[in-house]
Amino acid sequence: MPRYRMAFSKEGLARFLSHLELMRTWERVLRRAGLPISFSGGFNPHPKMSFASALAVGVASRAEYLDVELEEELGEAAIHHRVSQCLPEGLRLNKVVRVPDGAPPLMAVVNSALYRIKLKARQPISAGELSRSVAFLVQQPAIPVERTTKDGGKKCYDLKPMLFDLHAYTAGEMVEVVAEVQAGSSGNVRPEEVARALVSTGLAVDPHPFQVERLGLFIRKGGENHCPLEVNE
Amino acid sequence: MRQLLEQEILPRVVKPTRYTGNEWNMVKKNWEETTVRMAFAFPDVYEVAMSHLGLQILYGLVNDNPAWLMERVFAPWVDMEEELRRRKLPLFSLESFQPLAEFDVIGFTMQYEMSYTNILNMLDLGGIPLYSRDRNREHPLVVAGGPCAFNPEPLADFMDCFLLGDGEELLPEVLAAIQQLKKAPDHRPDREELLDRLARVAGVYIPSRYQVSYHEDGRVREVVPTMPGTPARVIRRVVANLDEAYFPSKPIVPFAEVVHDRIMLEVLRGCTRGCRFCQAGILYRPVRERSPRVLTRQAAVLARETGHHEISLTSLSTADYTGINSLVRTLLDTHEGRGVGISLPSLRVDAFSVDLAKEIQRVRRAGLTFAPEAGSQRLRDVINKGVTEEDLVTAVTGAFEAGWRGIKLYFMMGLPTETKEDLEGIARLARRVLSIGQEVRRVKGGKAPTVTVSISSFVPKAHTPFQWEPQDPVPELQQKQQFLKGLLRGKGITYNYHDARLSFLEAVFARGDRRLAPVLASAWARGCKFDSWSEHFRYDAWMEAFQQHRMDPVFYANRTRERTEVLPWDHLDPGVSKDFLWEERQMALAARPSADCRQGDCPGCGVCPGLGVAVDLRGGDNHAQI
Question: Looking at the complex, does the CB of residue A30 fall below 8 Å from at least one CB of chain B?
């Protein structure tokens, strides 16, 4: 069955959709678009679609990816046109590409995410102070971070090997952090964990992010990032 | 408002899509360009509210008129309420984030009694005075409809008017009347002038224009209109022809997973089975079916416009639809290739229904639920539930043989004339069903069968043959629950029951009068809200509220009423005569069943001559050709 990869954004009020709600919404979008979707078998048939990586409630994104399997071959432009007309406000389709048969699923290859995290400063922070904090953090041999698990327990992990890149800027009363971190099945860093790590250096910001946006999802190979849409290489 | 919501509030509440609006098919109009602005207010949380078909119908109907606007307002969950109150923000609509007080009309739907505290809470969150007498032309007109509007007396002091009957008929006339009196989009007409005008609309009940007097013992003496032009009885409005009734072709598709997360295709309205405890069975008479031709077209439109994965054939009794087999087959043939299934909200207890369920599960498989309602044949005859044990045995045997392993059974307890044997009958039936399942499994294999028994406490309702009957006192209901718990132990059987104290309060308000208003207000002030959500139900606060006003809830719930007693809802007329209800009650006490007019046998309930309508069976229209 032909598989298509869709790049989309999730913005405005739509960023408050949970991952489950987003999946349900896409299922309905694809039906409304009248695409010949392929279904899983069994008593509860579901459209064959899979997402690159779940996005937390409230996080906006300009680079989400979704693979959809169809019953028959259709032009990318036609799919783009039909789907775009059926999307609710806040979701936008950016690109559709045909995925070669046998290409690995999105979830297996996407392993890096780029976030912009806006943090409220608790007191005025100078650019110098901020860059010293960032430099201090990235020079640490280990960055222990605590995570609350689903059952309410706490566990600790080392953020260091999963933090690929970190920059921060002052913007009025905000600090804007741009962080590239590991994502996907072998380990997922949460944006608020990066914020907490910065607070642990003594930076006077609110550890609860004011706003988070995912700027990109990548396939990271040998220190180099590839866009999930580059399917033909 | 929107910025504050996005940046400060929504990140702090659970399930924020309850408050974002912006769903597919939401109608967002230019506020300034409309003349009459109405908020449809559902006094429960989003997931419940968005499962209500009436909302989708009226939302489409009103918004189709360019001069009118309808937006949605629901009860915020407790976390959201706290955020709003802390910031002194008013309750707002989902479409344009307008404060509730900015609307011309707020229309509450009264679906169940235990949502009344939420109604008061929503008015308060909207900054609107609770009592009608404290509101003036600066405030919205507050109206309410739905089944509980047929005994709305506990809310009489809070509402400006009640709308009785099918909203498709009545609401446009109400909005047109308001439009006539509005001189400019931001003008608000004088309230008395507005009520004078609305009093002339059939089906509108203006409680402030009636005087209620009482006997010394607390019973109602009489209810009389106090102004010329006010009808002595307000008669229900009814859609005569369902094929021609307004149909919402673009219902809102929620982001959140709501209770009824599917297309609701209304195949018929009304039910003539005549179960004597059932209020809906009276309030939605007569039976009116949609033609198969209209239904197949509507199903196709809804599937295309919503993208839902399931079409539910909704009504009070879908298996009774005249052409149900051919309708189901046609719908399956059209939709199953696209992964869209068909479902029935309830089944009759018979082999026919099981065959229907088998047909339907070609696409999706759900559990099966049957409602024998009572444990003995005698008691089933009392309530006129035309089901025999043989019917149940045939139905569940068919279900187990077809591969179902989980069966749910619904019963009621505390019904009039109930004895210990009737309760034991419930347990006996449940065990018999389980052993049929085990028998089938021995032959066919598969998973072990399970039977879930859900037992609710009988709540006597206004406008039913049991409206004169007492409810069992709470301790007695609790004893019966424990008795059944003892009988329903063991592997394969699960027993569910509701808090008897909640059923007691429901019984108080279902047949209450105007003197309950201060009790309701006090209970709300003591923090009662979301009463039907067990984690929020505060019985002690309710009892304190009754004591504060020296009101006795037992007077309303546990007292037998006389034939001659003036009932608080006697001036509200659903079309079915009180004499018929009394005759039905007498038949009940004699354990005699009554006729079903579907079979052409008119029991004389009075609704057809009274409302100028007729039973309308269209389901078989193209049946002959298939």
Answer: yes
